[in-house]
Amino acid sequence: MNLKTAMDHFWSMNEIHSFNSTEIALYMYLIRINDLCSWKESFKHNNSKIIASIKVTFKTLANARNKLKQAGMIDFVTKNGASETLYSLTFGNFTEARDEVPTKVKDEVYSKVSPRFGKGKVYTNCINNSSINNSSINKYIVKGQEKEKFLFVSIKNLNDYLQNFKGNKSHFILAYRFWKLWIEENPKASHLLKADVYQWVNTMKLIIVNDQNGVERMLAILEHFKRCQAKQLGFNDFWFTTISSLKAFRKTGKDDVKQIDKIAKEVNQTAEKQPEFHLAIETAIKKFKQYESSCTPSKQV
């Protein structure tokens, strides 16, 4: 293990979890300390030193390390009254799996339709054919047949789930990130609590591949929705608060214009007015392409 491997792992997982600045600072601090410790399996560190180094309160530190633990990035053990915490970096099978993946994705499909963040490009699939963890399976009956249903809310460790996911990983990540935004905004919405992973991933596939909207367009909308959730000035949250499912993107209004086209138009207009937002979209697209290049093309969902 080394700093480069740890950082590569972190930025790849950041595409899924969208870590905030404190979580990024904490993880970078911990891998630096572990590097100084010659990469021990676990190491103790004083909480006060961390708080002083990354300039946060203890509550903010606690929230950040809980988020990193939930994401499968670290593990830690605390004792009441103790000034030190026992930390360990939990890479799972990420490094081994990534080393077996080609550096370039084969058979890339480019289909430019319109400039900027319009219909954009259609990218290849990123698939992992490992067997899924049965603990996340819920059985239900459809037309007399028993089917396997995978709920987003049943995912306990997203890192492990992603490694074993049987399907298009790029479509999964996009579907998951939209679902996560919506359920944070509507935590009691039944259709979000019952959201089936494969149904949402398949809908994302229809949006990107069949409807030719492209990954770029979806990432731009996602970045817009994130700012709507944060209630940033200059971002109209009408669409973010009006729709809360991927299927709604595909609906057509009375004017025969699809809702996703109306949303994308508004996103483009906002990006033209706000250079920082435009740059954020470009950065998100660049990072997502880097993630896609680390995946293995295989059978589609």
Write the layout of secondary structure elements.
Blueprint: H1 3-17, H2 21-36, E1 43-46, H3 47-54, H4 58-70, E2 74-77, E3 84-89, H5 94-99, E4 127-128, E5 137-142, E6 145-150, H6 158-164, E7 167-168, H7 169-185, H8 190-193, H9 197-210, H10 214-229, H11 238-242, H12 246-249, H13 259-273, H14 275-292
Antiparallel strand pairs: 1-3, 2-3, 4-7, 5-6
Helix pairs in contact: 1-2, 2-4, 7-9, 7-10, 10-13, 10-14, 13-14
- The tally of beta strands, per DSSP, is 7
Q: Helix- and strand-based class? A: mainly alpha
Give me the Rg, rounded.
20 Å
- Strand order in the sheet with the most strands: 1-3-2
Our count of domains comes out at 2
Element order: H for helix, E for strand: HHEHHEEHEEEHEHHHHHHHH
Number of H/I helices: 14
Shape: elongated
Give the termini distance in whole angstroms: 34 Å
Strand content: 5-15%
Average pLDDT works out at 78
**Largest β-sheet summary:** 3 strands, antiparallel
Helix content: 40-55%
Q: Low-confidence parts lasting 5 or more residues at pLDDT below 50?
A: 92-116, 118-147, 296-301
Please outline what is shown here:
The protein is mostly helical. The chain is built from 14 helices and seven strands.
